[in-house]
Amino acid sequence: MRHGGQILVDALKANRVGHVFSVPGESFLAVLDGLHESGIRNIVCRQEGGAAMMAEAAGKLTGRPGVAIVTRGPGATNASAGVHVARQDSTPMILLVGQITRTDRDREAFQELDYRQVFGGLAKWAAEIDDTARIPEYMARAFHVAMSGRPGPVVLALPEDMLTETANVADLPPVAPVMQAPSEAAVRAVADALAAASHPLIVAGGSVWSGAASDALACFAATWDVPVAVPFRRQDRIDNRLPHYVGDLGVGMNPKLGEALQRADLVVSLGSRLGDTLTNGFSLMSPAGQGRRIVMVHPDPDETGHLWRGDPSIAADPGQMVQALAAVPASRQFGAWRRELRKQYEDWQKPHPTPGNVRMEEVICWLSENLPEDAILTNGAGNYASFLHRYFRFKHPHTQLAPTSGSMGYGLPAAIAAKILQPERPVICLAGDGCLQMSITELSTAAQHGANIIVIVANNGQYGTIRMHQERHYPGRVSGTSLFSPDFAAIAWAYGGHGETVSDGADFPAAFARARDAGTLSVIELKLDPEALTSSATLSQIRDSARR
User: How many structural domains compose the chain?
Assistant: First the structure.
């Protein structure tokens, strides 16, 4: 006989969970008891949103569900930010939420919520376990749903009395992802579509991507001499140094690549949903009249016809598809088209000078040239990230952790999770002054658990992205976008870490070296000129253009 908390923890162990991310609550004390001697490392966080984002980042890195455990009511609603990231980023994740006792339901008891309603439109599946003996069943289904088809988040509510009751029930074996190998006919259909095209563009995305898939994509692209683009914040799907990589389609994309998407007579989507971010709000491609042939390869058959009419639509693992395509001899090549797009990418990579003594383009170019190739870079949302997207060349899979949902505050918790899961690799978090302050208390989590990350804060004293849009629509009428920031370096020291402030770009390499050698968490604050609003235009240029 085991209590429900122990049964649940044993289900986690059966599914090879090595870490959980939590904020403790009295609603799931039995789970904490089960974790006590389990061998599962419990990473105690400072806010439930941070815990959920850490679990989401773990899912991105491993391809298996990251697990967060939070308490009822405000704990669950705080965690919803991470669930939203997992949903829009198609990341496998499980959120376990403490719940009131079953006998108190429907009385608006302390912190009572109906989690099926709260998360019903946000998670892939939201349920509540009422029977202790059914915990293994629910947990097995949770792992299956989180990884099957289009991966995503699952939420399970755990009534407190259900967790303390005992039951004599067997554990279930670990859940394996559903195999979705493409048929020979499907592989041939993609090859035939390429053979019939004149200006094809491969868009390689997908939320779960392996090193083997990356190598196969490079081989496939070289065999057909075809250009490969990637969706927003999926830049690590292929080595950016290869001549077939032509850039990323997303926020702040190279305008020339957007034009190329419009010109392409064939788009082969390998795992991407080809959503609004990739198509610039459907202005480059419209589901109402797509105007070109689209081949859709996606693990979820519902997604292949959600926005686009695929010709053909193929329900298969895009990684397995590209490995199969790599073995198909090319019946034609597209060298001139590919070289044109690659040149446009390389021209876009040439640094565009921005104002100020510290220039983000120079910082990012230095990082791209000097970081180890397996270094993991994380970021949240903000205009600072456009410099990373434009100038950094990702070399290996699982080196980019960033929310395609555009969630602020993500970079720091993601970096902590990455360093805890893979401590041998350098982990660098890029954050804006506004972005970092949304989750800055997780520096305490990093210090407690020995996550020796380097945080680079781009401080321009404003919510830069919103200020950019504000100047475009209401030039000169600044409202609600100015931002006060603390001394970020001093905060690092307060948490027992290493802090530096860089006011001259020439000092950045030495500051980074000291941070790297500090042996603890480090924060480097970059003092930026507020005029340096984007990688292409200054604040004044945006305002003046709007006033014309």
Answer: 3
